[in-house]
Fold this sequence. Notes:
Elements: E1 20-31, E2 38-49, E3 53-57, H1 64-71, E4 79-84, E5 87-88, H2 94-104, E6 105-109, H3 120-131, H4 137-146, H5 162-175, E7 180-184, H6 192-207, E8 213-216, H7 220-223, E9 228-233, E10 236-242, H8 246-262
Parallel strand pairs: 3-8, 3-9, 6-7, 7-8
Antiparallel strand pairs: 1-2, 1-4, 4-5, 9-10
Helix pairs in contact: 3-5, 4-5, 5-6
Bound molecules: adenosine-5'-diphosphate (ADP) and magnesium ion.
Amino acid sequence: xxxxxxxxxxxxxxxxxGDIVARATRLSKVYGSGDTQVTALDQVSAEFRHGEFTAVxxxxxxGKSTFLHCLxxxxxMTSGSVQIDxxxxxxxxxxxxxxxxxxxxxxxxxxxxxxxxLTAMENITLPLAIAGRKPDQVWLDRIVATVGLTDRLAxxxxxxxxxxxxxxxxxxxxxxxxxxxxxxxxxxxxxxxAGTELLxxxxxxxxxxxxxxxxVTHDPVAASYADRVLFLADGRIVDEFAQPTAxxxxxxxxxxxxxxxxx
Length: 263
Ligand code: ADP
Ligand code: MG
């Protein structure tokens, strides 16, 4: 194993609380060129600490998804830098980036993205199988219990409710003990009860399992499950606060919406 390989240290042992797991420094993203050019992110800097649950909010079109995708190495940045678990994404070749995402990141999207022919358990362990890693059975049991799926593991996605399917996606994201989990509107396709359940599981995975989570949401109640909330407007971070309540978030968003409309 070469020490020059930025991915040579083995992945995913969670670090001590307070360590920085992901960092964006003057991250910019410009789509298109000429007349149609859009600056989706304008010099965004932010840090995400181990064991911290961050919500990212802002008006529609403010750059939330772009931020998450650039931070997670799913989309290229135009300038600036992103580090995940000490690795500078800009230095990685495509295959190294794929490996970093696979080994150190978990993803939960609005669409559950489960494979219909596999059981819940097979879906949960699929990324590990692809990576050629042996599942840690004790850890898996703990995750499955945390997301409340113990008696659903042999079911296929079509035999599960939307909420249960998203919990399978949640367990899949946790299975590899990723350094960080990225969620883009993970409750967007769930009814309010299933959404509350999922948020409770995310919260518990932070509290009990020491997981680090960055979640984009437009729902102030969802954001209130986080430890802190970042507000984006016009591609910039314009505010942040800790221990958000739904009311405080809603109030802040109203001001941002008014500001965006005034522009
Ligand atoms: P949000 O998730 O906050 O709604 P996005 O990150 O999706 O915002 O978009 C931010 C801005 O970038 C918007 O103006 C959007 O139209 C633009 N944008 C996003 N993706 C693309 C793309 N693939 N091509 C061109 N413009 C894009
Ligand atoms: Mg979006």
